[in-house]
Amino acid sequence: YTTLFRSGQAVIPANTAVTVYLNAEQQASTLDEYATSDATFSVVVTPLGIIPTAGVSVDVTGPGVSVATNTASWSHEIGAGDNYAIVALSCSCPDSVLLETVNVTYGGVAMTLIGETEVGGLGDQGWVSLYGIQTPASGPQSVVITAASAVTGIVANSFSFDYWSQTSLAYLTSGDSTDIASSEITLSSSQLAICAILSYGTGAITPGEVAGSALWSKSAGGNGDLNLTVISAIGTGGNFSATGTTSASQPWATVMATLI
């Protein structure tokens, strides 16, 4: 016996099995005393959301900045349907400065640190970081970076993504006085990798042969020490290798994240 349809309509919870008897013959052997004749049912479906048919992808790349100060800002506008944004940034500093002294906001909302690492294991030469934010505000928004007063340069840019559902830190690596900066992981077909490569010195990074594309590359404007390249790729079930060749055997660092 059930009162599910006594009022003539019902809302059935998700993941609930319901048996509906359409006529008297079908319900005759049951204890439901109310279905005594043929009945007509109308089914109304209310969509709970749109299931994406495509994987996560980079939709918008910001203009980026290169400054010889401890603060930086620029404007980023996400694309239609974008639901995640990442800021890749690098800082240089002649003194030992804690990495946590950098604050990054998007539209006035604090971004979350995904991962960071020091150049060649030496914080006084600089570091590279990735910050992320879920459901960033639409329309033109200010990206603001505020670092400790001892920071002498910032190179950074923003990227927004559509069909995003999850971000994970994948890889941190660094080296000192070598010609090759590299990060390599295995990507499934549903993953996207984004890798920020920083070298510290007078020579710029030349992106190597990668299973992806160089989204953005810029050198510091003031002191010329920071050279930041951001590389991304969509997984095909194989290895993704983000590499860069430095021109002056200079120290480097990389930070990589995966998105699905």
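The record above closes out task 2.4. Task 2.5 opens with a second protein, given below.
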Amino acid sequence: LMIAIALVAIILPFVLPTNALAQEVTLSSGGSLADALARVADGGKIVVDDTVAVIKALGTHNKHVTITGGTLDFSGFNGDVHLGDHITFENITLTFTEDVRLYANGYQVTMGEAVTMPNPIQIFGGKDGGTAASTHLTLLSGKYSEIYGGSHNGNIIGDTYLYVGGNVNADVDVSSHSRIRVIYGGSCISAGLTKTIGGTAYTVFTDNAKANYLYGANYGSGTISGGANITVSGGATMAVYGANGSGDYNGDAKLLICGGA
């Protein structure tokens, strides 16, 4: 009896609980991205091995997660897509309805190498309304009709960080006014509203990225307390502006062009 008790005492510490989080979660057709995000450990990876339809809200887990593999199909998703984790997408196809809005909600979000998007989307580093502490958005591939380092009709307490490089918008003819692609380091603010970025709006445009117009500040009226700071060291664009695309702007604007066209 004593031997049996001793054996149980040795074995039990090595029995994992049934709700343990996994470093790698495989997501197959018929599975749920929301469930996979709940099951993966902080710092873990979700591997998509087929085409997976994303039809329900993703939830908030505050984890750092890499998502890679097959295809995530958001075309049947009802409304805008909101992220609730620090996510890196890489070597994956993301299918959205054209011009749907993807909100990073202040989480660090990266579209890494070889992210394929059949349709362009609008992407925001911040939130849809409300207040974000700061933003950090890195885009190295994919298609985007509009890119904002900040929020949509929301305030940001600190800085916004927007890095656009790699092969973003590789299919765009920057000399043409058709299929316009626009980048704003700040926020998108509707007429009649005035919103604030409490820090600095930092934007870097580089590598082989393309955009028709590049603005360091907001679309719409607002204050950027630390000013707009935009660096162009590569890429191709029709025009670069240090401040706003429209509306009144309160703040400094610093523009450095050291490469690109």
